[in-house]
Write a structure and sequence with these properties.
The complex is a heterodimer. Chain A is of the alpha/beta class. Chain A is built from 22 helices and 21 strands. In chain A, helix 1 packs antiparallel against helix 5. In chain B, strand 6, helix 5 and strand 7 form a beta-alpha-beta unit. The chains are: A alpha/beta, B alpha/beta. Chains A and B meet through loops of A and strand 6 of B.
């Protein structure tokens, strides 16, 4: 529809332009034609006059024109008087010249009333043209046409005995061209202004077109990476033939941590370099776009070779992994996870095809990152349905279906609940409760994860304040170094000392802690706010005694894998026993989680653990339960 | 070269203004008549011609007394008794000063006309360049 309007505009503007040019041409032509007609009219009249003069001369002098006139001054006077009768203000001069032996032209007769030449007096003429006429014995017109006046001389040879004896010359001049110019001048001025206006219009239109092209280019180009952006994808998705393309979704692994650790400028640098690697790895037929944040979408032209899409993705993955991203003296390790939809035509539309590539990308993420996944849609769809994707969490946030459950942490020495651990849940659309292990892995390191953390923090803070109860909140390293989350925690805990005294942050040591000094700095900040720190899942994974001592944690939460079989596995028992001893020496309290049976509970009492939590004591509940509901 | 230019001007007079043509022609003519004279004293009976002569690039002095003149440029006056060299501005004056006029320059029917009188050219020992010889008249 829009295109039709453009065609119509162009048609109208072209028609106006052509009409104006045609009008100008017609007016100009009219002026020319009028001038030519006028000229022809004068020439025609001059011709009649000269023919009459020739007749007159020949009737008076039958032979030897020069000799007769030379000998007979009275005849000259008589003829000159006759010639003068032919004259008008336009036809001012009528005279007869002959060519002497030296080739000079001299007067025989001059009928002119002024500027009269005498017999035999020379007259400067255009000899070339006069000689030509003398030779050809025909008539000739010499026109000198200026813008304002028309000057002309009509020449007619007088033939005696087959030879040119003399030439009748009639000079005519008129100012009629001035009149024509005067009449046409207003029209010319209108055209002048019209052409100036048209010229300005063309300049403005050209300038506007250039601006439009620039704006258009800017609107479809990502300014940071110079790749196409999502607007471009929206524009081309209806016209692109999915039969010829594979769709690859790329996501830089743990990009949030790079941003938080090295700063946003470092993040921008990584995005720029990664985009260059992308551009260098694709071909002219391929299309690379920045899909959002650290996500890229590639349309890989695979009409000729279906395998080429996978080869390109693997090459990109490998090139990014090998590339040394050095920013401000820091070598940053970057990897990329890629989901490749090799058969997008099988989906209903472009968006569904992108969604499949996105799901494959999450498979790459969930299976260790730095991978390309292109397995068949059927096989992954099953896996995808087992977990909840990022859109599920986004929608839950929008619908306010995020809730916190609280599990009591029990002090077996005084039979009191010492605090509650806050645990996130999502209420599904059908009302069922979705546990975090089915959606958290899919949103790790995404902005959605941080939004979710903020919601949990807010709900937990309110619960602690409203009930005056201590609450533990889980934070991972990426949460800890996120500036928005830090700002939120600092603001709330500084606002309320009481809240700070009620909050324990359970920090998980993990592989993602790539800057231990930053980690320690953030823990120190939480300490300074009077919050307490618990090390989560201690005793397995990436737990580090040195770090635990350095950060002066208040609690050690012993990992569930060590607790759940403690009544049967003597190795687990030995490890837990030593952790408790270490904690006592380091002045830290111990918490055992996953206490699921009486046997486990009793073993832990024997070992002298400080606090316990688990289904044997109480299940997580959306309210803060009291001691009466324990062990029920 | 200058002469060729004059011929060109004589036949294509409308290309330039009449004043420009006259300036060029008088410059060439006066230089031809007085090739070695540093200052040329000229008497003229026409105010326009006096101004025109003063505007030339030659060293020309307009004199008030005929006796002081090297050349008389006569455009209107008949019956001047003189033995000075005369150059006229009208064809009829050529006949009047037949004995002392070396030539004349005048406009007729919108065309510039240059004429030299052969016998007087010889009389005053003027060496007319070849290109200007076509404007020579043996007799009137």
């Amino acid at each position: 529809m829009r295109k039709n309007y453009y065609t119509l505009y162009i048609f109208i503007i072209s028609t106006i332009l052509i009409s104006i040019i045609y009008l100008f041409y017609a007016v100009y032509n009219t002026k020319e034609e009028l001038s030519i007609n006028l000229q022809n009219k004068f020439i025609e009249n001059a011709k009649y006059l000269s023919l009459n003069m020739e007749k007159l001369l020949k009737s008076k002098i039958s032979k030897n024109l020069y000799g007769t006139l030379k000998e007979n001054p009275f005849l000259r006077e008589d003829l000159e008087a006759s010639l003068s009768l032919f004259l008008t203000p336009t036809f001012q001069y009528a005279y007869v010249l002959y060519r002497d032996k030296d080739g000079k032209y001299r007067y025989l007769l001059d009928g002119s009333k002024q500027d009269k030449g005498a017999f035999d007096e020379p007259l400067s003429v255009n000899k070339q043209q006069w000689d030509k006429l003398y030779k050809s014995s025909k008539s000739e017109v010499i026109i000198q046409n200026s813008l304002e006046n028309l000057y002309g001389t009509f020449l007619q040879a007088i033939i005696y005995n087959g030879k040119t004896s003399a030439i009748i010359a009639i000079d005519f001049s008129t100012q009629l061209p001035t009149s024509i110019t005067k009449v046409i001048k207003p029209v010319s001025i209108i055209f002048l202004y019209l052409f100036i206006a048209l010229g300005l219009m063309i300049i403005i239109l050209t300038w506007q077109t250039i601006l439009n092209i620039k704006t258009k280019k800017q609107s479809i180009t990502d300014s940071l990476t110079n790749l196409y952006n999502r607007n471009y994808l929206n524009e081309i998705q209806s016209s692109i033939n999915l039969q010829n393309y594979s769709i690859a979704m790329l996501d830089l692994d743990k990009f949030k941590i790079i941003n938080d650790t090295y700063g946003h400028k470092a993040g921008d640098y990584v995005l720029q370099r990664s985009s260059e690697i992308l551009k260098n790895s694709i071909r002219d037929n391929d299309i690379a776009t920045r899909y959002g944040g650290e996500e890229f979408l590639l349309l890989l032209y695979t009409r000729d070779n279906k395998k080429s899409g996978l080869q390109i993705c693997e090459r990109i993955r490998s090139d990014i992994e090998k590339y040394t991203f050095n920013y401000d003296g820091n070598d940053i390790l970057v990897t990329v996870s890629i989901g490749l939809n090799k058969t997008p035509l099988e989906q209903k539309n472009f968006n569904d095809a992108v969604k499949i590539a996105d799901q494959k990308l999450y498979l790459s993420k969930n299976s260790g990152r730095n991978k390309v996944t292109s397995s068949l849609v059927e096989s992954i769809n099953k896996k995808i349905t087992e977990t909840r994707d990022i859109d599920f969490v986004k929608q839950a946030i929008l619908d306010d279906r995020i809730i916190c459950y609280f599990q009591a942490i029990y002090n077996n020495k005084n039979n009191k609940i010492v605090k509650y651990e806050s645990l996130v849940r999502i209420i599904d659309i059908d009302g069922s409760l979705v546990l975090p292990n089915s959606f958290l892995p899919n949103i790790t390191y995404t902005t959605i994860h941080f939004k979710l953390t903020q919601i949990i923090l807010n709900r937990s803070f309110e619960m602690a304040l409203n009930n005056n109860k201590s609450i533990s909140i889980n934070l991972n390293y990426s949460d800890l170094i996120d500036r928005d989350i830090e700002k939120f925690i600092v603001k709330r805990l500084r606002e309320s000392e009481k809240l700070a005294s009620l909050i324990t942050f359970e920090i998980l040591e993990s592989e993602e802690i790539n800057n231990i000094e930053l980690f320690k700095e953030k823990i120190a900040l939480l300490h300074s706010l009077n919050a307490t720190i618990s090390i989560d899942d201690f005793g397995s994974g990436f737990s580090n005694f040195r770090t635990v001592l350095d950060i002066e944690a208040d609690y050690l939460k012993i990992d569930a894998t060590l607790i759940k079989n403690i009544d049967k596995n003597i190795k687990d028992y030995a490890v837990v026993k030593n952790i408790i001893l270490f904690a006592k020496d380091a002045d830290m309290k111990t918490i055992a989680e996953y206490v699921h049976s009486k046997e486990v509970f009793n073993k832990l009492i024997d070992l002298g653990v400080d606090y316990m939590q688990g289904y044997y004591i109480s299940k997580p509940n959306k309210n803060l339960i009291n001691e009466e509901k324990l062990f029920t | 070269m200058k002469n060729i230019f004059i011929i060109f001007l004589l036949v294509s007079n409308l290309l330039a203004s009449s004043l420009e043509i006259e300036q060029k022609i008088y410059t060439v003519v006066l230089f031809t008549i007085f090739p070695h004279k540093s200052t040329i004293n000229i008497w003229s009976d026409d105010e326009r011609n006096r101004k025109l002569l003063s505007s030339l690039s030659l060293d020309i002095k307009i004199v008030e007394n005929i006796q002081d003149a090297d050349l008389l440029l006569i455009t209107h006056t008949y019956n001047i008794q003189t033995d000075k060299m005369v150059f006229v501005g009208k064809y009829s004056l050529l006949k009047e000063y037949n004995k002392s006029a070396i030539g004349g320059f005048y406009w007729q029917k919108g065309r510039p006309n240059l004429v030299f009188l052969h016998k007087n050219i010889l009389l005053y020992h003027i060496n007319l360049p070849n290109d200007m010889k076509e404007f020579e008249e043996d007799e009137l």
